[in-house]
Write a structure and sequence with these properties.
Blueprint lengths: L7 H12 L1 E5 L3 H14 L11 H9 L3 E7 L11 E7 L6 E9 L6 H15 L4 E6 L4 H10 L3 E6 L18 E7 L14 H6 L1 E5 L5 E5 L4 E4 L4 H7 L1 H21 L1 E6 L4 E6 L15
Parallel strand pairs: 4-5
Antiparallel strand pairs: 1-2, 2-3, 3-4, 5-7, 6-7, 8-9, 9-10, 10-12, 11-12
Helix pairs in contact: 1-4, 7-8
Length: 293
C-alpha cells in the first residue's frame, strides 16, 4: 500500500473544528434513522420514503461499511439531528478501494461537507484502502469544484444517464449523467484556493461550441480543453426543465468527446468552467455507483 505522508487524523480533526461539528460513525438504530431522515430532507423527499432507507443503511454497516454523521458541536438542541452525513462501502479487497455511496451536508455547509469527507478518508485509510470513488452530477459546478479542487480528486469517467429517470425533489425532469470522482487518499492535499482553470489562457483559446444561453461552451488550446456549466443547474431545472435538459445534452457532447480523446476533468473554476487535461488511459475498477449525487 502507498505510504501516507500526511497526518490524516490531524487533518480530519482540524476540518471538524473549523466547521464547528463533531463527526463520528453511527451504528445504532436511532442514529441511523436520523441519518435516513437527514438524507430525505436533503433530497426533498418524505421521511417515510427516504432515498436511503434505514434498513439499507443498517445492512451496509453490517456488511463492513460505515455511516458517518456530523453534529453541530455547539448551540444545538438535545437530540438535534445531523448536519452532514456519508455512507461508504468497500470494493473487492484486491483494489483496496472504498466507494462513497453518498455524502451530503446542509445548505449552509460552512465546511461540514469537507469535515465529513476527511472523516471518511481517515476511516478508509485505517481499514487499508488507498483510493475512494463516488459519482456526482457534472452540471453542479459547486460540487465539481469541491471534488476536483478542494479534495483533489480527478473525474475518472463520464457515465451517460447512469440511473435512468429519478423521482426525488432535486433531479426530477433531468437525465442522470454522472462523473466518477477518483480520490487518492494518500496524496498531499491540493491548494484549497484551487486551480483557476487558467482563465487567461482560456480567454485566448479557440471556442469550439456555444452553450444554450448563447455564450461559449467549450474552448481549446494545444494542451487543454475547457467546458462551461450553468451557474445553478438545480434552480434552472426547477424554473425551465427544457432549457436544463439542453444544457445536459450540450455538456454531455463536449465531455464524452473529450473523454474519448483521453482528457480527464482535473479542475473547476469559480466561474463554472471545467479544465480538462490529457490523461494516460487505464482500466478503472468498477463498483456499484452512488444512486443520487
Amino acid at each position: 500500500m502507498t505510504p501516507v505522508t500526511i497526518d490524516v487524523g490531524a487533518r480530519a480533526t482540524a476540518a471538524a473544528r473549523t466547521a464547528g461539528v463533531t463527526v463520528r460513525t453511527v451504528d445504532d438504530v436511532a442514529g441511523i434513522r436520523a441519518v435516513a431522515d437527514f438524507f430525505a430532507d436533503v433530497w426533498r423527499m418524505p421521511r417515510d420514503t427516504p432515498p436511503y432507507p434505514t434498513e439499507v443503511l443498517h445492512s451496509l454497516v453490517h456488511a463492513g461499511g460505515a455511516v458517518h454523521a456530523a453534529y453541530a458541536a455547539t448551540g444545538s438542541a438535545p437530540g438535534e439531528g445531523p448536519v452532514g452525513a456519508s455512507v461508504a462501502v468497500f470494493g473487492p479487497p484486491a483494489a483496496r478501494e472504498v466507494y462513497s455511496f453518498v455524502a451530503a451536508a446542509t445548505a449552509s455547509d460552512r465546511g461540514v461537507g469537507f469535515a465529513v469527507k476527511q472523516a471518511q478518508r481517515l476511516w478508509a485509510l485505517e481499514h487499508g484502502a488507498s483510493t475512494m470513488r463516488w459519482t456526482f452530477d457534472p452540471l453542479v459546478g459547486r460540487n465539481a469544484r469541491f471534488n476536483l479542487v478542494k479534495l483533489g480528486a480527478v473525474g475518472a469517467e463520464y457515465l451517460i444517464d447512469l440511473y435512468g429517470p429519478m423521482n426525488d425533489g432535486v433531479n426530477d425532469g433531468d437525465e442522470s449523467d454522472r462523473l466518477t470522482a477518483a480520490w487518492d487518499l494518500t496524496a498531499e492535499p491540493v491548494d484549497t484556493s484551487g486551480p483557476t482553470a487558467h482563465s487567461e489562457d482560456r480567454a485566448t483559446a479557440t471556442v469550439l461550441r456555444h452553450a444554450p444561453d448563447g455564450g461559449p461552451l467549450a474552448a481549446r488550446d494545444e494542451g487543454r480543453l475547457w467546458c462551461r456549466v450553468p451557474k445553478d443547474i438545480v434552480a434552472l431545472r426547477a424554473a425551465d426543465p427544457a432549457l436544463a435538459l439542453r444544457w445536459r445534452h450540450a455538456v454531455r457532447e463536449v465531455l464524452t468527446d473529450a473523454y474519448a480523446e483521453g482528457f480527464r476533468a482535473t479542475g473547476m473554476s469559480r466561474d463554472g468552467w471545467y479544465v480538462l487535461t490529457p490523461h494516460t488511459p487505464h482500466t478503472p475498477h468498477t463498483t456499484s455507483e452512488e444512486p443520487r449525487a
